[in-house]
Every structure is written in structure tokens, then in C-alpha cells.
Amino acid sequence: MEKTKKLSLAAWIFIGLALGIAVGIMFTGNPDFANNYIKPFGTLFLNLIKFIVVPIVMFSIMTGVISMRDLHKVGSVGVKTIVYYMCTTSFAVAVGLLFANIFKGFFVQISTTGLEYTATEAPGFMETLVNIFPNNIIAPMSNATMLQVIVMALFFGFGTIMAGEKGEPFAKFIESANEVSMQIMATIIKLSPIGVFCLIVPVVATNGPSILGSLALVLLVAYIAYIAHAVLIYSLTLKGFAGISPLAFFKGMMPAIMMAFSSASSVGALPLNMECVEKLGARKDVASFVLPLGATINMDGTAIYQGLCAVFIATCYGIDLTLSQQLTIILTATLASIGTAGVPGAGMIMLAMVLQSVGLPIEGIAIVAGVDRIFDMGRTTVNITGDAACTLIVSKLEEKKDESK
Ligand code: ASP
User: Fold this and answer.
1) What confidence tens digit (pLDDT) does each residue in 366-398 have?
2) Ligand 1, residues 296, 380, 381: which to mutate, most atoms within 8 A of Cβ?
3) What is the pLDDT of residues 69-126, one digit of tens each?
4) Angle CA 80–86–91, to nearest 5
5) Which are the contacts of 191, defined by CB distance < 8 A and separation ≥ 6?
6) 377, 383, 387: which to mutate for ligand 1, most atoms within 8 A of CB?
7) In the structure, which protein residues have their CB atom closer than 6 angstroms to any atom of ligand 1?
8) How many whole angstroms from 207 Cα to the centroid of ligand 1?
9) Cα(263) to centroid of ligand 1, in Å?
10) How is residue 321 annotated by DSSP?
11) Hey, which of 379, 381, 385 would you mutate to test ligand 1's pocket, going by the most ligand atoms within 8 Å of its Cβ?
């Protein structure tokens, strides 16, 4: 019963996506109707998701921490998660750089005269560090500053464990609040086929012609790199560390993948992603902790994109990046992708930080800005797939550890 239900949602989302692309093509060159009358419904759907995502992240991380009942266990899951996230992300930048270097000779040089792009100030490292810690409990929730929400949830989770018996009523309340939020989320998820349709139509209608422009090759290289990273790294680690069949993984992930692709938001795809990993066998306590964290800090697709675009923009300006510059890019793009919020377009803003680190002109972002959404759909898909892979692996490793005890 469960299985048919899941398949049918995935199928419906696929129908929404395919129909959306077809209708979008019909509106190509004349996107006004799509933008004025279809896009608002997509926005409405995204609003609903944004509305529920703060309670979901907040309560599910707290529930996850509390249900581990032991600070050491939280630490053990946390360390594995961070190690996996950091390693795969720096590898992802390297993949982006590698493909960019292979195809560099074919990149069409685009005129860079008169380009203007005012970078929204990308925060420095120390500032980012300080900004992780909230100074009150309301602002992170009202601004949906996910990293701060996570830190808050962790503190309250730890506090509940440390309070012992006195913390029990609070733990019960949080558990119940978590269940209530999940039910609301399940209702919103039912709307995703329509949501996906309304999100993709205006994207195709607006971007259709420009995809054929001079950026086609860069986009193609980006997608090759996205796919190579996802297929290679996630398959290998899933098989190697957790004995999970990559095919089953990608198949089970389809609903979340389609949602990420059409919404270009890791946070937006989080609710569906949770459903998918749990159906694939991830432990609930691990998933409720690792997945929201991943949707906030783990962005492999974004890292690939930033590495690739740095080389591409350099090429457009006739600059050849040295090896040490490329190593700097690996470091900064890893950090920049951590600082990237899981919302559409955020990766492009953080690209400024990467370009700056090696002295490339920030105006170069204007070259790729026009088709950013197309880059974004792919990178978000990779982002959330990486979160899911990590969740399943950590879940399996924890299971093995418990068994051996
Ligand atoms: N849109 C991406 C995400 O939500 C972030 C980015 O722009 O790279 O995962």
C-alpha cells in the first residue's frame, strides 16, 4: 500500500514537471502570461513550504537530538556528518574545476566590456562565524535564518537532555509539535505536482531562447559535472560505506529530485527529501538531524558551479588561473557553499566571494547571471542528493555501531 502511494506521488510530480516544460515551451518568447498568472501560484506553493520549514527544522532537529538521549551519540552523528559533508564538497569543487579545465578551450569568449554587477556584499569568514550564533530566539525564526535556527534547536535539544526528568514534559511537547508540523507538511506535499508545474512553466518560458545562447556549452559542462559527481561520489560512498544500491537510491529519491529541480531550493525540497530518505530506510533520529543540517550547509552542486564559473569567468577576461589560485578556489568555494542559503539564486551571490579570493572581477557574474536559474536547478538537485546520501550512510553506520554493542 505504502509503495503504491509513494510511486503515485512521484509519478504525479513527474507529470507536473513534464507538462510544465511542455506548456513553458509553448509560451517561449511570450512569457507574460506565464509570469503574470502561473508564476504566482508557484510562489504561493513556495510560500507554504517556507512557512512550514522553520517549524519542521526546529522541531525535527530538537526531536532528533532529544531522542538520542546522550550527548556522545549526538557528537558521533555530528562528526560523521560534518566529515562527509566537508570531504564531498571540496571534492565537488575539484570536479567543477576539472571539467572546466578540460573544456576551457571551447568556451566562447564573451565580451566583457560595459558589464556591471554590484555584488551584494558577501560576508567574510569571521563575520559568517559570528552570524551563526543568534542573539535572540525570535529573529532567526522570523527571518528563516536556517543556520541560526539549527544552532538554537541544538541548544534546546542539549538542554532538554541535560535537564533529565525535569526536561521530560518539554520533550513530550516538542515531540508532539514535531508530529503536528509533519502532518501539515504532508498536506502541503500533496500539492507538489501542481506546485512543480507552476514553478517550471515561467522558467522555461523565460529562459527558453537564452539557453541556446553562447552559454550553452558552460551549462552543458555544468550538468555533466553535476551528473558525474552525483553518480560517482554518491554511488561509491553509498555502496562502500552503507551497502546501499545506487539504483534503488536514485529511484527512491526521484520525488525529492524533481522538487529540487523545479524549485531550485534545498530548503523547499527538504520536506519531500525527508519522506524519501525515510522510505529508503534512514533512521528517523538521524534523518531529522542530518537532513536539515545538510539543506543548510551542504551544497555540492553549488560548489561545482562556483568552481566551474570561476574558470569560465577568468577565461572570458583572458586570465589563466594558476594551480595555487585553483587550490584557493577549492578552499573558498567549499566555505562559500557552506554559507550559501538553500534558496534560489543564493549560490550566485556567494560566487562573488570565490571570485574575490583569486582577484577575478566580480562584474563577471553578470555573464552567467542571465541563465543562473538553469545552473541553479541542477546544482540544487545535487545539493539535496548529497544530503540524502549522507543521511543514509550515517544512519547505516550508527546502526552497525549499535548492533556491535
Ligand atoms: N539554490 C541552491 C539551493 O537551494 C543554492 C544555490 O543557489 O546554489 O540549494
Assistant:
1) 888 878 888 999 999 999 999 999 999 999 999
2) 380
3) 788 888 889 899 999 999 999 999 999 999 999 988 877 666 566 566 665 556 667 8
4) 125
5) 45, 48
6) 383
7) 264-266, 299, 302, 340, 342-347, 376, 379-380, 383
8) 18
9) 10
10) P
11) 379
Cell of 319: 586570465
Cβ atoms < 10 Å from Cβ of 179: 11
- Angle ∠(53,57,63) on CA atoms, nearest 5: 140
Q: Whose CA is nearest to atom 6 of ligand 1?
A: 347
Alpha-carbon distances of 339 from 127, 193, 357, rounded to whole Å: 11, 30, 15
List all residues 6 or more positions away from 321 whose beta carbon is below 8 Å from its beta carbon.
Answer: 310, 311, 314, 329, 358
Cα separation, 100 vs 245, whole angstroms: 30
Grid cell of 381 as nine digits: 538537485
Residues 6+ apart with CB under 8 A from 264: 344, 345, 373, 376, 377, 380
Give me the DSSP letters along 104-150: GGGPPP---TT----------HHHHHHHTS-SSSSHHHHTT-HHHHH
pTM of this structure = 0.83
pLDDT tens digits, 264-276: 999 889 999 999 9
